[in-house]
Amino acid sequence: MTDAFFRIHKLDPLLKRNILKTLSWRLLGSSDTIFWSWIVTGSLSFGFKIGVTELLSKMLLYYGHERIWQNLKLGLLPRSKKNKIIKKINEPYLFKHSGKITREVREMQNRNSSFTIWLTGLSGSGKSTIASELESWIFEQGIMVYILDGDNTRLSINSDLSFSDEDRSENIRRVAEICKLFNDAGIIVIASFISPFIKDRKMAKRLIGDESFIEVFTDSSIETCRKRDTKGLYQLAIDGKLKNFTGISSAYQPPSSPDIHLCTDRISVQDCMTIVKQYLIYNRNINIHLKSENVNY
Predict the structure, then answer these.
(1) Domain membership of residue 66 as a residue range
(2) Does some domain include residue 29?
(3) The pTM is what?
(4) Is 195 among the residues known to form the active site?
(5) With 0-12 CB in 10 A as exposed, 13-18 as middle and 19+ as buried, what is 7?
(6) 129-160 pLDDT tens trace
(7) With b meaning 16 or more CB within 10 Å and e meaning fewer, what string describes 104-141?
(8) Together in a domain, 247 and 160
(9) 28, 47, 93, 200: which could join 172 in a potential S-S bond, CB 3.0 to 4.6 Å?
(10) H-type helices in 192-238, by residue range?
């Protein structure tokens, strides 16, 4: 029984709080009932009987009522609206500060323009593999580059976020702001995130800047992604043990016109890299002479 409670509490930290609220309120309420029953009837034992009966019945009712409301969003502002209200309240008292060194100066020192390569696709579609290979290649050219990965950020700055649609949007917003800061520092960012919703990717592009955002779609079928899934996440999602999993219990909205489209279940990692390299050389002026290869993007 104890183990079961701790398992539930781990999944829902508010469980303990709900139980304590139920107990404290009902003890207070039942004490009041005992007192007035004693005053009205003149029998303390009769008052205790009524109070204890009420304590047990009302405690169950109150707990159930509390748990139901815990899952209702009625009357609660969405995170995005709440953020806008807080931003509006804080804005008059906040002032942006700029140093003497601009982004353009940093880019000149780094000998390359800074931008964000945003990899989007299902879990297992090859985002992390391509991001790692791409980071190594760019770094070898003497250019400052850094990877932001979905799992890594959720283990750190986004550790307070769930996988609900609302929290997924907040996850992408925070990451986009980080990408913007890195780009301002003159560093190329490779952002590897499922980022399943079109509206969130548009938000990321708007925050980072159209001219600094390269969208790369790592396109792979669910079947291929499942075969590559060494962690067994897809099976857990299919069995209902993992909620809000993209591609199974949560939707993925593919880009309609990405800057680079990689069919990662049809071509090799090497061919994917060739496509990305060619794009960066001819569109972002990375001064590397790549051998001509017959791969089209």
Answers:
(1) 2-70
(2) yes
(3) 0.74
(4) yes
(5) exposed
(6) 999 999 999 999 889 999 999 999 999 999 99
(7) eebbeebebbbbbbbbbbbbbbbbbbbbebbbebbeee
(8) yes
(9) 200
(10) 198-208, 222-228, 233-238
